[in-house]
Amino acid sequence: MLKFPVPYQTTIFVCTNQRPEGHPKPCCGRRGGAELREELREMVRSEGLEGRIRVFASGCLGGCEQGPIALSFPDGQLMMGVKQDDLKGIFAEAKERS
Questions:
Q1: Measuring CA to CA, which of 5, 12, 15, 56 is 20 to 30 A from 91?
Q2: Cβ–Cβ < 8 Å for 79, 69
Q3: Which domains are delineated in the chain?
């Protein structure tokens, strides 16, 4: 196994999990997770911070009932019920750490 240092100061995972239609449990993918991820990525790009902040799509992070969910590192902050209005604050915090 090869190990390398993490190339980004801040990494944010945004759940984009999609459950099958009719599944009894909700999913972040149907609650706008992919759109939130893309908007956050665009904020990073527009500031030229791609080398310092990375936004990844993720599978289920748990807490589906409170989704969409995001998780940031290195601070390990779990954010539930993320809305479009929250993205500026999430980005500002990531920018401060980077």
A1: 5
A2: yes
A3: 10-97 (3.40.30.10)
